[in-house]
Structure formats: structure tokens, C-alpha cells
Structure prediction request, 578 residues.
Amino acid sequence: MIRICAVLVVLFATAAAAQPRPIFDPDDFLDPRPHDNVPVFASRLVIGAAWSFVDDYRPANQDAGFVHVTNSFYIRRLQFDYKHSEILGDDPPPVHVCACDPPIFFPTPPPRDATPAAPPPGSKDALQVAFYAPALWGIDGIPVMMRYRLTWSRQTIDTDISLPLTNEIVSRRSGREQTFGLDADTYFRFRGRAVYGSVQYSRNSRRGTTDDRMQHELVYTNRFPGTAWKRVLFRPTLTLGGVSNRGGTAINLVSPSFEAFLHERVTRANFHLVWNPQITNSGTSGWNTTHQVAIFVDRKLFLKLFRPRS
Amino acid sequence: MHIPALNCKRLTGWIWLACALSVMFAGSAHARKLEATTSEIDIWLSGTRCESRELWVVIEGVDAEEKWRPADPARDKKKCHWTATADRRFNTRFTRFSLRLDHARTDCHKADAVLISGEPVAKLVFDCCNAERLRSIAIFATPSMPVSYVRDVARTDHSQSRPCVEFRPRPFLSTGTITHVQFGGETLFLQLGSDMMKPRLTWLNVNALPEVLSGRPISLSADEIRRRLSIQYVRGNRSGPSLPVTAMDIDIDNLKELKLKELRVTPR
Prediction:
């Protein structure tokens, strides 16, 4: 009962809670039971590229490279993360403003009922706190371990605004995009089969730019059991949900994902290939599909288990 | 004599509350079954396969043959009726029991407390039994290291059946045999290298080794164990299906530390 209350308090008190995991962010779930709740520190480097890159359900309309560093500290049932990403891509076109009142910016930001533009390539930082708890049922057997995670991420967006003819910079805007999110694992049984997934709620706000937007996301990701072929592992997921402030229907996001994973024994690197056809609906353009494909490699930089000396 | 007037209207709310609490308390007291602390066990088996030459009782999941309690045919000489005595007293409400027969094992049950000749006894009723072939799983690890196991036993439709975890308190040293295994009713996990048994820990899932399920022996190198563990993660093993890179790295480091050359699993 106390656990239920704690989860509900977290859910309602935050009322804002996990940016959807970027496509290149490796799964850092670590069940605390196998290593006896011993503190663990893990640092990891991820390098790769994505075709038709999508940032938080907003197509970037370009390909992008990325470098991603994660630092995770696990202690008892808690996990703390600091993650830094560098998204490498084409700079956005220069923003011009007309000498009119109210000012009109070019290129014109997408209308309010359209899918917002993705933030420009740049660096993003994220802090996460997660709590592991066994599922509240099946206590007599070995219970399923669940994770509940809060995420706060931030990206600064600086924009130079110039006059259209002279390109003279008339103002500089120092904006930012922030995301608060909660990601809660779910587990239930349906016709005798275990169904694993997670519910994510997040609030993403962009301020101080020429295209200030806010969106709320409430999505459910179903994690189907994966399979293996020789040394390659395959994992499918399906995300369904709604993203606010883009018009269209309440359920306006369907996002299956197929990941192939290979661990290379000599270098101890993990190779990932992800195909993520993301189907979204907006008031202006209806249903659209963006085929995001990412290929990346991750490797631990540092891994330490702080075992007590015996 | 002045008798103070009782203002029933003001007390109406309290009276209703008292009535409601009384009903709830009475209902809860009625619903609560008899429980007892005892060491005596009365076992009834039903079903076409209930007969066995010998019968042992596993109490509280302690699955070491030297800890099993032998059962004796009951004095009434009725078929499939046994009695046993635990080595210590237990509470019928919290304790779980399973049986080992010649040809099968059972799921875990909670006992009902009954009075026999005025003495409290834990009464167990089992539907007997799972018709699946009974196996023994021989384990051999090279080099010498502690090997232990956990059996996650699923509940059945029987009203007394409960899910439970059975385990070996003291690990084998390198070699040992796990007896009375029926993969259809339980999930068997092996643990390597730890002197301490961890009943809440799952590691290498023997049920996920198709060779063993089909009765063939298998020899696993450290790298092969790592690969099998990765497959367990992606299929979901007491957590959602995932590709947990940190957990996989820890597995590799642990296997390296153990210097495991070979783990042989032989079903019989």
C-alpha cells in the first residue's frame, strides 16, 4: 500500500515528468538484485548517425550524427544519470525579420496546429533519477523489477535575427528547450502472458526563440519479447499515444521500433541498428510517416562495482 | 430523580459509524480462517498418480535433500494419506510446503490449520500430480566454484496453491545434482560463484536452454553463458524485455572474475 501511495504521489506531485528516450540512448536498466544492491558507476560513449532524425516526435527533416556520453550511478534501488549529447547536423537557415509590427520571422515557424520543428542541432544535457521497485504482485515468487524515472533535459537555442536584405544582425535571442518527464514501467498478465511496457508523460517547452512551443506527451510503449539469431538480438517495441498542440486526433502518434543488437567480443562494443517508422498526425498535414534509421555503437568507458571488502 | 435526556439525533452519525465498524469487524473475524503454530503435518493427495513409495516435504522452500522432511503413511492406512513432522514449529498462515514423490514434485501450498485429537495440525491437500517427466539436472563447473540454484515455482489452479521460491541454502562446490525437476511447473535458475545463496536472484535460466529441455547435455563456455544471458534479457527475465548494456557488461566482468572455463548441464 505504501508503495502504491509513493508511486501515486510521484505521479501526481510532479505532474510533469521523461523525455522519450533518444533513439541513440542505450538501455541502462540495471536490476539491483543480481549485484546485491552494491553501488555501481558506469560511464558509456555512444557514437553514430541517424537518417531522417526525429527529436522528441518532431522530425528534424535532415540526417544527423551524434555523440552521446552517459554517466550512471546505481545505489541500492536508486539510479542517477547525467547524460550529454551532441547532435551534429546542418545549421538551421538564418532567421530574418521584417521591419513591421508585429515582427514577422522568416522562415515562418510552423503554425500552431502543425507538428513543431525540431530544435536545431546542438548540445543537450539530461539529469535523471530513477527508482527500482518490484511489482506489487507475485510477491511470493521472484517478482518482476520495475523502474520509475524522472528526467529533466535542457538544450540552449541561440538565434541570430537579421534583416532580410542586408543580413545585418539586429538582435540575438538566447532561448532554451526543457523537458520534464516521468517514465514508469508497467507489467500485467493477459491470457497468461506477461505484458511489459512503460507509460511516459512529458512536458516539453521551448522559450526565448522565434518558434516558442510547448507540448505534452502521454504515450505507452509496449515492449515485446525479443528474439535472437546467432549472435544478433532483435527487439521490437510499439509506442502509441498523444502529443498535444499539433492539432489532429487525440491519439496522434504510432511509433513501432525494431532494433538489432550485436555485442562484439574483442572490442566489447555493442552495435545497434534501429528502424523507427514514426507515424504522426497533425492538423495541417494529417498523417505522416518518417522513417528514422539509426546506426550507432556504444562502449563502456568505465565500470566499477563498489563491493565491500571481505 | 432527574434523568438526563439522551439526544439521539445528535448521536445518529456515531451510531451509524459504530454499526458499520461492527459489521466490518464481524465480517473480517468470520472470514479469517483458523491458523495455528505447529510442527505436525497431515497430507492428503488426490488424483490418479497420488501413490508413491516415499514422500518428502519441502518446507519454506529449503530445497536441500538433507533438509527435506520424510513423510510416513498415516495410521488410518488410507491410500495417499501421509503425515510428517517438521523439525521446528511453524505458522500455518505463512509457511509454504511442496512435496517430492517418487515420480513427481508438486507446486507449493499454504496449509489449513485443523484440530486432530485436540491438537493443531497443518493440513495439506494436493492434486497429484504433474504428469511431465521428472528430471535430475547434474551441474558441473570448471574450475571449482560455488554453484547454487533457485526454483521459481508457479501456482496452479488449486485454492491452496501459492507461487513460491525454493532454493539450496548451501551451494554445491562445482558439482551437484538438482533432483525432482519438472520444467512445466517451475523455472530453474543457476547461480555461480557466490558463497551465499540469494533466493531473490535470478541468473542463468535453465528453462531457456532448449538443449536441456529436450534432454540433451550442454557445455557452456563463459562467452556462451554471456550470450544466453543476453537472450534472457531481450526476452524479459523478471523485468521487461530489454537490451541492458550495463547489466551485460557486469555479466562479462563477473564471468571474467570467476575464470569460468566450462559449465556442464546434464539432464537425466
Summary: Chain A has one domain: 2-305. Residues 4-19 of chain A have pLDDT under 50 and may be disordered.
